Amino acid sequence: MEAWPAHLHARLASFNFVGVLAAMRRLYLALPRLFATCLTLVVSTAFGQATEKPLDFNRDVQPILAKNCYQCHGPNDAEGGLRLNSQEASRAVLESGLKAIVPGKPDESELLRRVTSTDHSERMPPEGKGLSAAQVDTLKRWIASGAEWEQYWAFRPVVKPAVPEVTDKSWAKGPIDAFILAQLEAANLKPAPAADKVTLLRRITYDLTGLPPTWAEWEAFRDDSSPEAYEKVVDRLLASKHYGEHWARKWLDVVRYAETNSFERDNPKPHVWRYRDYVINAFNDDIPYTQFIREQLAGDELDNPTPESLIATGYYRLGLWDDEPADRELARFDELDDLVATTSQAFLGLTINCARCHDHKIDPLPQKDYYAMAAFFSNIRPMQTRGDHIEQVLFRTDADRQNYQNELENLQKQRDEFQARVAESEAKFRAALAAKNGEGKPDSSDLDSLRYSYYRESWDNLPDFAMFKAERSGDVPSKRFDISIADRPDAFGFVFEGTLNVPADGQYTFHLDSDDGSRLIVDGKELIKYDGIHGEGTVQKIEVALTQGQKPIKLEYFQRGGGRGLTMSWKGPNFDFRPLSATPDKQERIDIEQVINTQGESLLGRDAVREYRRLKREQNELRGRQVPADYALTITEYGHRGREMFLLERGNPQSPGPLVAPGFPGVLDSSVPAMPELPESAKTSGRRRILADWIASDKNLLTARVMVNRVWQHHFGRGIVRSPNNFGGLGTPPTHPQLLDWLAADLMEHDWRLKRLHKSMVMSNVYQMSSRPSADALEKDPANDLFSRFDMRRLGAEEVRDTLLATSGTLNTKMLGPSIYPEISAEVLAGQSVPGAGWQKSSPEEASRRSVYIHVKRSLLTPLLSAFDLPDPDFSCDSRFSTTQPAQSLAMLNGKFTGDMATAFAQRIAKEAGDDPKQRIAAAYRIALCREPSEVEIDRHLKLIDTLEKEHAQSKESAWRLFCLTVLNLNEYLYLD
C-alpha cells in the first residue's frame, strides 16, 4: 500500500477514526450474517424447514407461551378456564368443553385454532399482530410431538456430564475444547485458527489484569519457544496484584457498588471503599467462592468473624438510600426490595424481585417466595448518615480492642466533664434570666439523683433503649427532665433515671406531653407510653396512688424530627401542678446560647460570658475528636428477635396480609429452614447465616452455574447464558448447557477456587482462537453462538483510562486505600445542583492510580469512563453495553486527560529513544501496540511530523505530541483482536 500524502497525515492529528472505522468494520461483518439469516429464512420457508433443529421446550416453546399467553392464562389468571403455565393445566377441559392442547393432534387443539384464526374476535393473543408464522409453526410441531413439558434446565440438579467424543482429537486439549468442538462438528464447522502471539499476549494480559503487556513481557514470551511458554504467562498474570483489581471491578458491577447514596444530596457512604478493597483482596487471595458468599451475606454471623468478614457485610449498604423519604414505610420496603433483587440476581441468577406485587409472570416464583426471601433481611437496621449501627471499628487483636476502649472511655470522660461544666454555666445564666424576669423558682425537692443517658439515633417508634449504646451519660444539672442538653435539633433520645420524692400517701396526677415518643415508669410500673409524632395527639394524663417516700422514676424519650418538645408536671394531695421538666407546660424552650450572646454580659458579666464561650469551644472540639481507629461500613440488626414479615397485597406496605416466615424459593428447595435459638444478648437473628449457607451449598441448583457463567462471560465476551443475572424463563437459554454443568460441577469439586477456573478456560484452544471468521462460520454461525471463533472486543472504560496512564508512563500502581478524585472540568461540575459538591481534589500522583480506585459518586460519574459505557451503579449490571458513539471520539481526541497523556507519552519516548525520529516511532509502537512498526508506517509518521512543523507551524514538541495522540486513537490501541 502506498504511503499516504503528507497532508492527510496532518489531518490525523485533528480527526479520530476510531468510531468510524469500528462502525464500518461492524457493518462489514454484519452484512454476511444478515445475508445468511435472510437466506436461511428463504430456504427454510421454501423447503419446509429442511434443516430445522429438534424442538426444545424451554428454549423454543416456553418463551412463546410466557410472552404472549401468561398475562391471561398464566399463574394469576385463567380466562376461559385455561392456564398454560403447567402441563397438567394446559390439557384440562375448558369452560367451552374443548381442550386447548390435545397431545399429538394439532388439528384438534383449540390453542392452535385460536392463534391462527382470521376472526379478530377469536384470535389470540387479542392485542398486536398475533404470533408470527415461525411461532405458530413451533407450537404446531410441539403439539404434534406430544406437547411435553420439560423440567426447566436451571432447576435441574447439577450433574457432571461425560465429556463428548470428537473427531478432531488433536484440537481438543481438554473438556472445554471437547464440548465446544462437539457442537461445531455437529454443524459441520471447524474452529478458527490459533491467534498469533502478539494478539494472544494482549488478550490474556487484558483479560486477567486489565492492563496492556509491556515490551519486556512481549520479548520474554516471543523468545520462549517451550510448550509451557503460554502457561507461564497465565500463571504470572494470575499471581499479579493487578488481577484482583481488574476482576473486582466486574463483581462491583454486579453488586451495584457506589460510594454515595443518590437522591437529592447524594452524600457519601462512610468508609465504603473498604468493601471495594475487600473484594480486590478476596480475588487476589483466591478465597473459595463459598467463603466470598458467606462473608458478604453473613460475615458478622460467622463462628469467628474477622475484620475482613465484617467489611464484607458492607454489601448491604451499597444501594440507594433516601435520607428524607416522603413515606418511610415504603422506603423501608424499597430498601428490602433492593436487597432481594441484588442478592437473587447476583448469586442465584433469578429475578425474584419480580414477585413483589404478584406471582412471577414467567418463573415458578409465587409472591410468598419473595416475602420469604425478604424475611431474611427484615431485621437489618436501615442505612444512616453515620453512627454505631452502620460503622464499626476493626480490631486485629484483643490488645488493639482494649487500647481503643481505654482511649474511648477517657475521651468520653472529658466530654462528660465539659458537658457538665457547660450545663452548669448555662444554669447560672438561666437562673439570672429568671430572676431578671421575676419568675418564681420551681420546687427543687421533687427529684433526686437524676441522671441521663443520651443517644444519637433516628427511630420511627419508641425503641427498647437497652438495645443501644448511649453516646454519653451523666448527672442532670437542672435536676429536671431536661432535653436542652441534647446537641442536635432532632434524631436523638434520652433515658432519665432518678428518684421521685413523694411527700405523702395519696392520689397523684401526672401530665406528659412529648415529641416524638415517651415512656414513664414510676416505682417499677409503666404509667404512660406515648408515641405522638411531631406533636400530634393530646397531653397524656394518668392518676395513680402512691405512698410516701422515695420512688424510682424513669422517663424514656425520643425525638425523630420536626422540632423538639418535652413537658411533664405532677399534682398531689397538698399541691397544685408543678413542673418535673426543665421547660414548664406551655412555655417555649429558651435558646440559652442566644440569650448569653445577646444578654450575657448584663446578666453575669463579661468574664462569665468569656468563660462560657471557652467551654463551648473546647466542648465542640471534644465532640469532633475521634479515637484513631479503622472504621468499616457494616451491617447491624435490631437484635436476636427477627422482625416479622407479612405478605403485602400488591406490594403495598399499607395492606399487610398473612405472616411469612423466612424461606427459600420452592422451585429450588421446598424445605423450610429452622431459625436458630439465640440468647437475649445476641446482636443478630442468625437468619442471614442460614441464607448464606444455603446459597453457598454444593446442593444449590444455581450458585455454581451462575458464577462459572460470569467468569466465562468476561473471558469470551458473552456468557454460555447470555443473560448472566437471569437464568429464568425470560433469560436466554444456555448455548452449551452440558459445558455449563461440567464447569459448575468442576468448580465445586475443586473447593470453589476461581483462579483454577480462570486457568482452565484461558488454557483451552477455544480461548486461543483467532477472531477472524471463515465464510462458512459467518453463514452457519453468524452470532457466534457455537464459539466458532473468538469475539473481538473494545477495551472497557477502566481499561481505556488505565491503558492511557500505562502508555504515558504515569500510572501509579499503589494499591488499596481511600478513593481518588481525578480532575473533572468546571463545566461538568457546574451541572450539579451544588457545583463541585462532594468531589474532592487528589494530587496528580494520586489521581494517576487505577480507575477501580476512583470515587463512584452516583450523580457525578467520571466523564471519560461514562463515555466508554461505565454502568449506572443504581442497579445490578450483569453485562456492560459496548457502544460506538461520538462522545468517545471527542474524549479521545479533544479531551484534556487524553491530551495530557499524549504529552507525557511524547516525553516518555523522547527519554527512552533519544533524538532519532525513527527510534521514537518504534518506541511508541512497542509501548502502545506491543509490536514493531513497519517501514511504511514509519514513513507515514515521519511525513506527518514534518508536515505539522512546516505547514502547520507546530513546534517540535507539539508535533510529537500530536503524533502520540494519533497513536492513542488507533483502533488497534482500543480494540483487542
TrEMBL record:
Q: Which InterPro entries match?
A: Cyt_c-like_dom_sf, Cyt_c_Planctomycete-type, DUF1549, DUF1553, PA14/GLEYA, PA14_dom
Q: Which keywords belong to this entry?
A: Coiled coil
What the entry lists under Gene3D superfamilies is as follows: Cytochrome c-like domain (1.10.760.10), Toxin - Anthrax Protective Antigen,domain 1 (3.90.182.10)
One GO molecular-function annotation for this sequence?
heme binding
Q: Boundaries of each PA14 domain copy?
A: 445-584
One Pfam family linked to the record: PSD1
Q: Write out the coiled-coil annotation as residue ranges.
A: 394-428
Matching entries from PANTHER family are given as: CYCLOINULO-OLIGOSACCHARIDE FRUCTANOTRANSFERASE-RELATED, F-BOX DOMAIN-CONTAINING PROTEIN
- This chain belongs to which protein, by name? PA14 domain-containing protein
Q: Which organism is it from?
A: Pirellula staleyi (strain ATCC 27377 / DSM 6068 / ICPB 4128)
Classification of source organism: Bacteria, Pseudomonadati, Planctomycetota, Planctomycetia, Pirellulales
